[in-house]
Amino acid sequence: MLKPRQRITKKKLKEDKLVTFYFQASQWFEENAKYVYGGLAALIIIAAAAWFYISSSGEAQKMASVEFLRASRAFDEGRVQSAMTQFQDVVNNYGNSDYGVLSRFFLAKCHYLQNDYEQALEQYQSFLDKYSGIEHFKVSALGGVAASQEQLGQHQDAANTFVKAANEYPASFFASQYLLRAARNYEIAEQKDKAVALYDQIINDYPDSQEKNEAIILKEMAKG
């Protein structure tokens, strides 16, 4: 006997589309990770803004998506100062909305590109405190925290944060890079034993990575 066809509600349809979108977004990030790391993630952000605009309810949400999209375009075009101002406006005007939270991620990137590492660190940490979406943003933001700490001369903290990012997201494109940077920061902090242990981790856990050969050389140098 055939079971009655399940009624598909608007809520269920919206949730299914959102899951599909997140899957496609994650796949895009995996395939283009090196560009995301370099700050050229606006393509996926524009797609995200378009999705949120379509699915948003209320004029405030729609206006937030439009402002976010404009800021993302400025960022993608390399107009960092303009993008920073626009992302800050989204944060100020739309607070804890999806757009306000995600704007903090790009606001942090803008500050980092402007060599304002204290503000970059603050915005990355604020983003991580509020964000619960796509994993790739979180691992990139953790890397941003570590990179900011590194630039501020906080090498012990930077090493610890890079290790945290790599260990929390071991399958990430960035994991072997983060471990290598953590090791270098441990060396600067005069903790060579920890550095050597991380070089071994790269060699053993990421044998196909570009960082493996560098880890082999740096391990011998650290031991010597």
Report on the structure:
The structure is a single chain. By secondary structure, the protein is mainly α. The chain folds into two domains: 16-132, no CATH class; 153-224, no CATH class. Helices cover 79% and strands 0% of the residues. It has helices at residues 10-31, 33-37, 42-55, 59-76, 80-94, 98-113, 117-130, 135-151, 155-168, 175-188, 192-205, 211-223. The chain is elongated and about 60 Å long. The chain starts with 9 loop residues before the first helix and ends with a helix.
Q: How is the topology of this model organized?
A:
Blueprint: H1 10-31, H2 33-37, H3 42-55, H4 59-76, H5 80-94, H6 98-113, H7 117-130, H8 135-151, H9 155-168, H10 175-188, H11 192-205, H12 211-223
Helix pairs in contact: 1-3, 3-4, 4-5, 4-6, 5-6, 6-7, 6-8, 7-8, 8-9, 9-10, 10-11, 10-12, 11-12
